[in-house]
Amino acid sequence: MAKVIFIFLITLISLSAKEDSPDSTLQKACLQCHTEQQIPSEMIYRRYLLKYSSTALIKEQIFSYLKRPSTEASIMPAPFFKKFSLKEPSKLDDKTLDKLIDEYIGLYDVSKKIYIVPEK
Fold first, then answer.
1. Which pTM was predicted?
2. d(C-alpha 29, C-alpha 104), whole Å
3. I want to staple 69 with a disulfide (CB 3.0 to 4.6 A). Which of 32, 33, 57, 87 is the partner?
4. 59: burial class by Cβ within 10 Å (0-12, 13-18, 19+)?
5. How far apart are CA 30 and CA 104, in angstroms?
């Protein structure tokens, strides 16, 4: 049953990612590995959102992790690293990395997907 739910969630995530079609630089520099390794980027973003709650803190933490990856700095639980290897430090310059993180956040930010019904 858990496998069926997992496959269903992966399918939904991949469909929503296709709708937003990320910039090709973001795709090549970041999301391509996530896709190949079947790591759901939207789930990772939601983990950041639950822990840090603001886009400024999320951006800061992602930037920090990508510059100096470690299991302690990662948002993922320790068992994750039994299946997936720790990322190598990013070789992108800070300006490019900032831009790509902004695009990543823009792609998965839930605030764009929430509709608030106005009061009468």
1. 0.71
2. 11
3. 87
4. middle
5. 9
